[in-house]
Amino acid sequence: MSRAQALSAGADADSAESAPRWGRGAERGTWAIAVAPLLAALAVLFAVFLTGFDGRSAMPPDVAARFYGFFLDRYPLFAFALVYGLARILAAMVAPGPASLVRRLVGGGIGLVLVLGVSLHPTFGGFVLRAGFGTGSGAFLNGAPMALAYTMGAGAAACLFGLAMGLGARLAGRPGPVPSGSRWRRAGQALLGWVAGFLALWFAAALIGLARDAGFGPWPRRPLDARDLVVAALLLTVAALPHTLLVAARLRPRRTA
């Protein structure tokens, strides 16, 4: 074997060894971006527990009037779901991709305002929880069984929240699906992705709405205790898991030969 052939073979071997390492690094980065929003929500939950933050904590009167009320009392875990949505947009802003810095900053800022707007205007819960509550209560008053009415309400809330979060992530630079196949195939793949995302958020909305029934205490009327912390952490983790796995699957780099 000549010297040139030996050098070429050595370079090929180094490339073959480095490819798996690069692939593992990219996969770890994918999981970090996918899991970060859930970790952010759990971190805020833990901070609320450690600080003893509740409805008696000092807050500006205008902020307290906007934050506390029926929807926070009935659906307390939506406060942490909101953190998840905001963190999902922030993760899209810093994720690898072709988007420019200007698009990430401007689009991400618009996305954050959009999620905050639909979740907190005119008060806590915003249009998201009002859409869910209105849909569910309307269905129940029209004769639908309670379980079906609740499921319909959770679907309405998930649809609005998912639209705001998904649009915000796209504005922040989240890349769309890689074009492949015919136009109809691409349209089918996009539709399948939207349906899967909606179903994941629908499951999450239905689950966190059952926090009181699952044993979550009367926060924010009193501070969280250890039992509340465990119940909330489990509910948030199980609720977010399908969407987290879906995001990780979308972000996973395609392997090439």
List keywords for this structure.
257 residues, globular
Main beta-sheet annotation? none
Counted by DSSP, the helix tally is 9
Element order: H for helix, E for strand: HHHHHHHHH
Radius of gyration: 22 Å
Strand percentage, roughly? under 5%
Q: Helix coverage percent of residues?
A: over 70%
Multimeric status of the protein? single chain
Give the low-confidence spans.
Answer: 6-22
Cα end-to-end separation: 27 Å
Shape: globular
Number of structurally distinct domains: 1
Strand pairing plus helix content: what structural class? Answer: mainly alpha
What's the mean pLDDT score?
A: 87
Annotation, overall tally of beta strands? 0
Please describe what this structure looks like.
- This protein starts with a helix and ends in a 6-residue tail after the last helix.
- Helix content is 75%, strand content 0%.
- It has 9 helices and no strands.
- The protein has one domain (38-251).
- Helix 5 (101-120) crosses helix 6 (126-141), helix 6 runs antiparallel to helix 7 and helix 8 (183-208) runs antiparallel to helix 9.
- The radius of gyration is 22 Å and the shape is globular.
- It has helices at 3-51, 61-67, 70-74, 78-94, 101-120, 126-141, 146-171, 183-208, 226-251.
- The chain is mainly α and 257 residues long.
Give the SSE map.
Elements: H1 3-51, H2 61-67, H3 70-74, H4 78-94, H5 101-120, H6 126-141, H7 146-171, H8 183-208, H9 226-251
In short:
With 257 residues, this protein is mainly α. It has 9 helices and no strands. It is globular.
